Amino acid sequence: MLKQHKNWKKSKLKKEHGILDLIDLMNEFHHQFIKNYGSFVASTFFPELRRIDAFYRKLTQEVQAKFPESSMVFLTNRHETKEKNRITVNFTVISVPNAVFDELGIGK
């Protein structure tokens, strides 16, 4: 455990060094973590995700070229009922990212 680690070096920061804006620091950390670390993990451990994202992006672009206001969705939980001459179909619509890496802010 950390508290048992005898070689743990304490920070040399003192109040004379000024004020740390934790909100700004966390915003920058989050940006760097998502952009750099997320990209590294995706590329290193899941290289096929780049190819999948490229295919999905191209598919989305083709659809949006014909239907500019469109957005990709998944339809799940399809359930069909039949009554006399009428068929009712129920399903759940799930919005999905159309350019996963772009929308997550992960660099290439």
What keyword list fits this structure?
19% strand
Provide structural commentary:
The protein has 108 residues and is α+β, with helices and mostly antiparallel strands. Helices cover 44% and strands 19% of the residues. A two-stranded antiparallel ribbon has the order 1-2. The model has no long low-confidence stretch (mean pLDDT 81).
In brief, what are we looking at here?
The chain has helices at residues 22-45, 48-66, 100-104; strands at residues 73-83, 86-95. The chain is of the alpha+beta class.
Work out the radius of gyration: 24 Å
Helix content: 40-55%
| Widest sheet, order of strands | 1-2
Shape: elongated
Number of helices: 3
Rounded mean pLDDT is 81
Number of domains: 1
How many runs of DSSP E, i.e. beta strands?
2
**Helix and strand element order:** HHEEH
List the helices and strands and how they pair.
Elements: H1 22-45, H2 48-66, E1 73-83, E2 86-95, H3 100-104
